[in-house]
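Please decode residue identities from the backbone states below.
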């Protein structure tokens, strides 16, 4: 026990003497969290998982209190890489499966950005998603066009697999969506409408122009960022058979920073879909560059 404690303290000394690992804490919450992480990693160390404990410790001591940068607002052309792991894949109040990994790459310049992302679950049977988004952002205004593709789809005709390059409206699982929103800082509003692809969710099998409207409000408690949201569909569509609230909830998130580039957001959220009478609660962690 004494030998392990001595070795552990030596590692801490190395971290504290190296500028790369020096930590500046914004508040007591960050300081408390670092102590808690240190205790957890010491317990791991005592359980003989030395390598895991050391890696975790070097990561933890450099995770606090730097300012986040908006990648779309940076000057010149720049790229963006991200990966997120979530306990459940919930999209606009609907359950698309269990534990999922989403990866994304994007490029941006002068307010314009092009982003591609993909999501897949640990279960091979879970629906996979690929999306490509072209967007423009100017201050609080954001406009987007997105091509969603699903590896299979649930339709009034049943579930069927799909090939990515199948574009027949009645057979494809591509969905094309136009979105516009404005962020007033204290309140954000967005309107999203399917305008092409498979969107025949009306009872008469006509195109539904499925629409999802969301209002969200951010707030902060201590060093944690929260966002409450309310999402509705105004008519019969993919989301519901008539006007309905389909997505409401709260998300809590804390971002940690490693150096000048890497951002590690840790989040937890609860989502309620009053229309389907379902409740979801899950956590997630991301790695953004």
């Amino acid at each position: 026990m004494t030998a392990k404690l001595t070795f552990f303290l030596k590692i801490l000394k190395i971290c504290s003497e190296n500028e790369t690992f020096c930590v500046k804490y914004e508040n007591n919450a960050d300081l408390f969290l670092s102590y808690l992480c240190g205790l957890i990693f010491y317990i791991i160390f005592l359980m003989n998982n030395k390598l895991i404990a050391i890696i975790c410790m070097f990561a933890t001591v450099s995770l606090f209190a730097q300012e986040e940068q908006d990648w779309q607002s940076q000057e010149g052309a720049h790229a963006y890489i991200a990966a997120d792991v979530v306990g459940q894949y919930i999209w606009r109040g609907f359950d698309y499966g269990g534990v999922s990994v989403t990866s994304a790459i994007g490029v941006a310049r002068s307010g314009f950005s092009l982003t591609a992302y993909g999501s897949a679950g640990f279960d091979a049977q879970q629906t996979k998603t690929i999306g490509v988004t072209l967007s423009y952002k100017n201050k609080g205004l954001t406009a987007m066009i997105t091509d969603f593709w699903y590896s299979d789809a649930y339709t009034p005709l049943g579930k069927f697999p799909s090939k990515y390059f199948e574009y027949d409206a009645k057979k494809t699982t591509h969905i094309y969506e136009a979105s516009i929103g404005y962020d007033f800082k204290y309140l954000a509003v967005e309107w999203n409408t399917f305008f092409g692809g498979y969107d025949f969710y009306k009872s008469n099998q006509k195109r539904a122009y499925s629409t999802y409207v969301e209002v969200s409000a951010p707030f902060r408690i201590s060093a944690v960022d929260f966002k409450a949201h309310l999402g509705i569909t105004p008519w019969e569509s993919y989301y519901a058979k008539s006007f309905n609230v389909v997505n409401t909830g709260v998300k809590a998130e804390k971002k940690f920073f490693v150096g000048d580039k890497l951002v590690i957001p840790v989040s937890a959220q609860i989502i309620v879909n009053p229309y389907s009478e379902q409740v979801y609660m899950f956590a997630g962690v991301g790695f953004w560059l």
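Observation: The two ends are 39 Å apart (CA to CA).
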